[in-house]
Amino acid sequence: MPNYKNPFEYEQATKLSTEDVLKYYIEDFNYSRFVSSKRNIFLVGERGTGKTMTFLYYSLPIQVQRVLKHETELDLSLVSVYIPCNTPLTHRREYELLDPLNASLASEHFMVVSIMKEVLDSIYSVPGIISKDEEEMLRSELEYALHLTLPSNIPFKRALDLALDKASVSVQESLNSDEDDIKKLFMSFNSGLKLFLVCLRQTEKLRNSHFSFLIDDAQLFNPYQKRALNSWIAYRDNALFSFKVATTRVEAPSFETSSGGSILEGHDFTWIEMEQPYQNRTSAFGKFARSIVNSRLAAIGVTKIPEEFFPENPAFTKDIEEAKRKAQEEAVIKYPDGTPKQIADYIYKYTRAIYFQERSPRANLPPYSGFDLLTHLSTGVIRNLLNPCYHMYDRMLSEIQKKPENEAIPIDEIPPNIQTEVILQLSKEKWEWIANKLDNSIEGCSREVAKRVYQLMDNLAILFKKRLRSKISEPRAVEFTISGFDEKSYADLSEVLLVAQKAQLIYTYWSSAKDSGKREPYYMPNKMLWPERGLDPHGQHARVSITAHNLLNAAVNNIEIPFSGDDQDEPTLFTTAV
User: Which of 135, 240, 288, 321 could make a disulfide contact with 156, Cβ separation 3.0–4.6 Å?
Assistant: First the structure.
């Protein structure tokens, strides 16, 4: 039997081998030009959007392997050091027992030592980067500058590793014994990390290097560490170092510094959004998704393009073509003297709506399939794209194992029926997870809040189903904005929305309001919820304006969101009111 390997593995990036990172990473110019620059940036996106993968790819150890693989020359003008925040050293909780000053100093110390150790490991991934003579020079300089003692009978890297470990142990012991002279043991950014970098720049190969710290999952830092990091970002001189900070949007750190000031977007850092709200085939994410799946297929020797590997159900394709014909006939009647754009816009809005409207309410759920559909189901998140692909390929492996060994054949296509089964199963499991496991999965979520989240998502699905089956101007809208906030509704509704965002059931974006031009948030539910409810994951670029009162009623009292069934409350092309 062939040795099958599922190419759609979606383990977190830190669990991938160096070979897999190099094999699967797809460079995106929008991100790479910032990550490979000397600027401070915040890379913002929820779990699964590719933040860690991007940072790992640009880290020095991975770049060393890339250079060796392609036999090119390593450029050390930018030394990118990957800094995971989810480590025991940065997660120490001693600060909770200390006065604010010592808590701040201790938190920064553990953070600084953690980063110095990552720098050390990273630069030594480069063969021969520091000569023996340079190591002896560094040994003397670091002992003097950092007040460390490096054992002389141990190789330099190991000796420095041990000395840094001892520096943290000494602080830990002093905290436990409540020593009065504890402050002299702390390392700050200036007295520790910065001096360390200055010393490293005395070596030949690092003489002109800029150190770029790739801080992953910064939302996991404690409050003192977050403020310390912002203080470092506030430095005006970026010749020696810069910071690239990856964080989730829903738990993004504040911009407050240790001194009580703030860092400013555009002045101290650049804010980059990883999540992309448009998933059609011509969008940036659509092209990105295609490149990702192409690379995964190439890894197992499949030469088909994604649309061929994940074909659309032929009956569905035929029905959509018929719906398109009807939409065109309607457009000609509605706009007898219409421009080509008016006709095309009408066809775009109503083709898929006609298909869903003309299905019998008693009919089975639509045959969800095709690579284009998978891209929309991802809701702009890479992990959401790979997850169903992984399960579809795994289902195919199960089918093959049922066959006699001599009938085993390579997998070069996922049939539409398998796609439909997996999509509907994952959609069903998503709803069951909200109903039964949400409070056990999301920190800070009570059983009551979990119930409210389910009722909110359920009533949104009911509203969007009514709209899809109605003759209104934007029947396929599956995004919403919130109007009519008051203090009470804001507090109660925000709690529900926050849990939904943490659970990645709702994604938040910002756009200009049509009536005022001001920036306002809009909300996109995870589209994997829609197949179980017979909705169209494609949606359209339109948003429904729902009052906070009606959303709160839906969440708290399980009351359906009102829908008039006509266009009287739809004042604009892209925003409708409910």
Answer: 135
